[in-house]
Specification:
single chain, about 500 residues, mainly beta, Immunoglobulin-like, five-stranded antiparallel sheet, globular
Length: about 500
Amino acid sequence: MRFAASAVVLFGIITNVSAQILWETTINPAEQGCAANTGLYGPNNQLYISVVELLSDTARGKLFRLDDVGAITGSRTLDYPELRPYSANLVGLGNADELLVLGTARREAPSDSDSARVAFYRFNADLAQLEARLVGRAGKLIGYLEGCTGPDGNVHLVYQTDDWAGNLHQYEALKITAEGDSIIGHRIMEGMPYAPVTSLAMHPSGATVLGSSYADWGFPAISGGTVSFLTDGMQLDSTYSFSHVDPAYPEPWNTPMDPVQVLPLPSGNLLISGHYWADFGANRGAVIQHTNAQAQVIDQFIADSPWATDRPAMSKAMSLAADGTLYFAQVNGWVDGDGYFSPFPTQVQVFHLDTSLHVPGSHVVDGFADSTFFSPNFVLAAPDGGVVVGGMARDLNVPASLFRAWVVKLGPESFTTGVQTPAVPVLGLYPNPGTNGFTLELRTTMEQGRIEMVDAQGRLVLSQPLDGIRASIPARGLSSGLYTILVRNKAGSLLQSLRWVKG
């Protein structure tokens, strides 16, 4: 187990404390599944977390205030007359230290094309709702809502609206006052290149920076992404495409892709985080690219674990600390996507980097230790030098268990120094897709290893010894579909997982 014995019970919710994890809290007051999706340090360095309820027609967006040991000291459900707010994104502080929140709201029984809107809220430090306004256009569906505050206190936001009547994937970018009572910048976009927009931030030049990415896992796979700059009036100024992660693999999917975050640096350069896929049989790695303002790569960091997928945190994977260092979070696991019903545990790996992308240390929250599926949504640098990570957690030991909003606090001492990601043993897996089987090319000779195959339902369908520098694996009797290939050493430890498709 990863926790020590010390624990605090909060409204039936357990917060565990260990020598490395300062505190850990899970929240699910409605017992219907929920996730922590944004975090913000407000007045007096109090921590606020927004929670979205999942998989329910009655779900609502909620806010929670946590103290310095992770205990819940206040909560609030978002409210709007005749509409149901079903998401909440903390975007910044107002001129009087109010909490500024963006969310999506819709009619309880939507029946027309203008049933959903973007809602803007202000709350005080005690989570009393001071104001709620609707901003932007109505639509059947509101999605990909991103927002931030500018140096003047105004709020910048972009969202996708879909009226299901021909105007699909249309974006609106807005600049509104901190009170939400006036629009001072506006642009309608028919879709950014490689949409959807997944990131929004302020550049030191005063421009609003949008990050967008797209991935289609068909044959052939297609992906890409862009950095776009909007003027003070929210007009499109310039757009630059993401560079390839590895120039040796110039295929169209070898670029940072969804989920992607663009984080401007004080120098005017950019940090771009996402994940990429250089080859169908290879691990899908997380990457940070340090670029100039035109998205030309200066340096990059690839956090490649032995697992099949290293996916960045879904909303904001990076956060700059006050000392200029960087925190980055990713999930390591066997499957792609959100994995609401994944049968597999995951790890959350948090890296502490300098802006040259050197890694002084990292910390792993290991769901394999107690069969927990984690999916991180955000990282937030803390004023005391530590970091908060939030997202979802589900106990796989309990059948049909629900997600809980999961928040963990790490201190500077939580990060092990000198951590290096091990080199993966497999250089190639081919043919992929294949019909009768496949061949593994190994980096070095394997002695008394083992290869295992797991089908899409999590069942072990093959297990055989692995010795030598090359192995041919027959699969004639297996059904067509996607398989996970596990490579283990003689002690049984997992060295690498890959994907193979049987045609």
